[in-house]
Design goal:
The structure holds two protein chains of two kinds. Chain A is α/β, with parallel strands linked by helices. Chain A contains three helices and seven strands. Chain A has one domain: NADH:ubiquinone oxidoreductase Nqo5 subunit (Beta Polymerase, domain 2, 2-Layer Sandwich). In chain A, the strands form two sheets. Chain A has a five-stranded mixed beta sheet. Chain A has a two-stranded parallel sheet with strand order 6-7. Chain A is elongated, with a radius of gyration of 19 Å. Chain B is globular, with a radius of gyration of 22 Å. Chain B folds into two domains: about 140 residues, Rossmann fold (3-Layer(aba) Sandwich); about 40 residues, no CATH class. In chain B, about 40% of the residues lie in helices and about 10% in strands. Classes of the chains: A alpha/beta, B alpha/beta. At the A-B interface, loops of A face helix 3 of B.
């Protein structure tokens, strides 16, 4: 049987009472809340106090080629509560130019590498992050490859190396 | 005891316990039967490499007794798996740290051509940056295919190897060939079937190039 997490309606009701009306949706057992960027850190801090002590993932979606999109980047925070087994998805939408969001490292240490990965692949800056540098791409890499305007085969960085022949050994 | 017949032939009669051969052949035989692999396993092909070294398809039967993980102690680098651009300088460094004579097998589709991963991070074939002797197709290749590749490499070493490693001097060989072409062309002589003429021409070419054979 697929895992269905217990309902988060009570948490959502309390959150809406606290920060104002929020857009929520449910899809296949997964509840998503859209939080504006200015309220994101406070909402996440409050959710952590409510018992969502596990930050499962921080990732991003680039809506550049999506016609119905209103913003370019949709940050995704996946939270889970180890006590009550509830799961919640927080969406934060941000835009070009200079996409910036406050880092949630003060709340969850796990955000260290998760936010480094998002910076590396999407170029979203996390203010307050102590060590924001590339994680999966090499340090000399200059582009943000998972953005939709970066070509799949790259721009020649993968073959920019010296050639060793039998004479060089 | 050698007996030389005068007159009809110059055949030497050798006792039964004497074998005459080339030193290159002896060196090749020794080297091909003791190829110690450097397992550069990055991905799934590495599992098949481990399976080839395990007991069912035993690679040690062919002389690859130990998979030394130090490049200083190996002579065969088996690149098993996709190589990303972050890994390629490491691959080149390991290759340079191996002592000559050394050979390279590119195992699997990803090491040979990039495989299914034609993306910004995967190098489309390590032979763009490393000299490769043998390619093994497959995703992953079965252990029997890898063993066939090692057997073919052994045949290559026996055919083309030299004790001093002259076959690795590719730049010098190319210079000598070009000098040979310059000499032979004006004379319109086909030296390919005349070994004595070939020796003369090679000596003349070496004199031009300025090397001692």
């Amino acid at each position: 049987m697929p895992f269905t997490p217990p309902s988060v309606d009570d948490v959502l009701a309390a959150l809406t009472a606290r920060v104002g009306s929020l857009e929520t949706s449910v899809s296949r057992g997964q509840t998503r809340v859209v939080v504006p960027e200015s309220l994101a850190f406070d909402a996440l801090a409050w959710l952590k106090e409510q018992g969502f002590d596990l930050l499962v993932d921080v990732t991003c979606v680039d809506y550049l080629e999506y016609k119905a999109a209103k913003h370019r980047y949709g940050l995704v925070y996946l939270l889970a509560s180890t006590a009550t087994n509830q799961r919640l998805t927080i969406r934060v939408f941000i835009d070009d130019p200079d996409p910036t969001v406050k880092s949630v490292m003060p709340l969850w240490e796990a955000a260290n590498w998760l936010e480094r990965e998002v910076w590396d692949l999407f170029g979203i800056r996390f203010t307050g992050h102590p060590d924001l540098r590339r994680l999966v791409m090499p340090e000399e890499f200059t582009a943000h490859p998972l953005r939709k305007d970066y070509p799949l085969q790259g721009r020649g960085e993968r073959h920019n190396f010296p050639v060793l022949t039998r004479d060089h050994s | 005891m050698a007996v030389v017949h005068s007159g009809s032939s110059n055949r030497l009669e050798l006792p039964e316990n004497v074998v005459v051969g080339r030193l290159d052949s002896l060196a090749n035989w020794c080297r091909k039967n003791s190829l110690w692999p450097m397992p550069f396993a990055t991905a799934c092909c590495g599992i098949e490499l481990m399976a080839t070294g395990a007991s069912k398809h035993d690679l040690a039967r062919f002389g690859a007794e130990v998979f030394r993980f130090s490049p200083r102690q190996c002579d065969l680098m088996i690149v098993a798996g996709r190589v990303v651009m972050k890994m390629l300088p490491v691959l080149q460094r390991i290759w340079q740290q191996m002592h000559e004579p050394k050979w390279c097998i590119s195992m699997g589709a990803c090491a040979s051509t990039g495989g299914v991963f034609d993306t910004y991070a995967v190098v489309q074939g390590i032979d763009r940056f490393i000299p490769v002797d043998m390619y093994v197709p497959g995703c992953p290749p079965r252990p029997e295919q890898l063993i066939q590749a090692i057997i073919d490499l052994q045949d290559k070493i026996q055919r083309e190897g030299t004790i001093t490693g002259r076959e690795f001097d590719t730049a010098g060989r190319q210079l000598r060939k070009r000098a040979l072409v310059e000499i032979a062309n004006p004379l319109s002589i086909d030296a390919s079937r005349n070994p004595m003429l070939q020796r003369e021409l090679t000596a003349a070419a070496d004199a031009i190039v300025g090397r001692h054979t």
